[in-house]
Amino acid sequence: MTKPSFIGASLRIFDIAVSKILWSRRTAFMALAAGGPVVLAAVLRSLDLAGMSTLRVNGASVGGPVMFGGIMWLLYLKFVVPVLGAFYGTSLVSDEVEDKTITYLFTRPIPRGSIVIGKYLAYVVCTALVVLPTVLVSYLLLTPIGGGSIGANFPNLLLDLGILLLGLAVYGAAFACIGALVPRPLVAGLVIVFGWEQVALVVPGYLRKFTVAYYLQSLVPHAMPQDDTVSAIQSLFSQPPSAVSSVLWLLAILAVSLWLAARALETREFVLGQ
Question: What is the DSSP string of 164-181?
Fold first, then answer.
């Protein structure tokens, strides 16, 4: 039997992993996490249609596009994206170890590293298929509030979708690396999301530059409509990196993380039953 190429083997694993992820119980958690912002958007739109004032800043009503930008910042980028990245990324390798199926995959005539790459690609596709449509629904619900134009703000929506997709990809890669290198990776992942990143972002100095959130969240002001809310967000960063710099750093984190994860599978000895 001819040994498939690394890309061919990754695509084979991808085909298997997509259905496994979509039909797993984790998908219910993913839908619940991604659906939260939609529920909030529906409530805000209902209040607006009922003629009730929703949000005000300095006595002025907050428009729908700015509300949507706030949901992007507070819910999607600070919670949904990193949590899903930790939840799924850490499981790409650890699930196979816990289910004792890693040895079966290792006996197949495929490069070991292709296992984590194929499963990672499946994670990106599945999370994007669940998360991005909820962003579109939230946008359609919130943007008309206060007279906002759906068409005029559509370029911002495309940028928002790109930021979320990039965030899912980078967080997933980083946590896939952790899952391939350390025991109990989910615990480590949640500590990073809710501990390290939150502390590093507010501590003065260079610690924030060692987080994914610093670069990902620095992209948000570039996508949000200009408003006092944007000024408040920008004030959180003393010297925020440029959009180009942020994207380049995020792509570098993604590439290095996937290389380390694949390398770990090629060299690490997995002892089952621990």
Answer: HHHHHHHHHHHHHHHHHH
Contact 243, 237 (CB under 8 A): no
Return the closest-CA partner of residue 156 out of 22, 66, 238, 21: 66
Which stretch of DSSP H or E encloses residue 56?
Answer: strand 56-57
- pLDDT digit string, tens, across residues 157-187: 898 899 999 999 999 999 999 998 888 888 9
pLDDT tens profile 55-76: 555 555 667 777 888 888 888 9
Tell me which residue of 89, 95, 69, 98 sits closest to 193, measured CA to CA.
89
Amino acid of residue 230: V
Q: What is the pLDDT of residues 174-228, one digit of tens each?
A: 999 999 888 888 899 999 999 999 888 878 778 888 999 999 988 875 444 444 5
Residue pair 84/131 in contact by the 8 Å Cβ criterion: yes
* Residue 3 burial (CB count, 10 A): 11
| H or E stretch at 34 | helix 26-49
d(Cα 259, Cα 274) in Å, to the nearest integer?
Answer: 26
**Cβ atoms 127, 30 nearer than 8 A:** yes
Biggest alpha carbon distance in the chain? Answer: 72
Total-model pTM: 0.86
Q: In 10 A of CB 176, how many CB atoms?
A: 30
Cβ atoms of residues 163 and 73 within 8 Å = no
Q: How many residues does the chain have?
A: 274
Question: What CA–CA distance (Å, rounded) separates 20 from 24?
Answer: 6
Q: Rounded to whole angstroms, how far apart are CA atoms 188 and 97?
A: 17
At 60 the three-state DSSP class reads strand
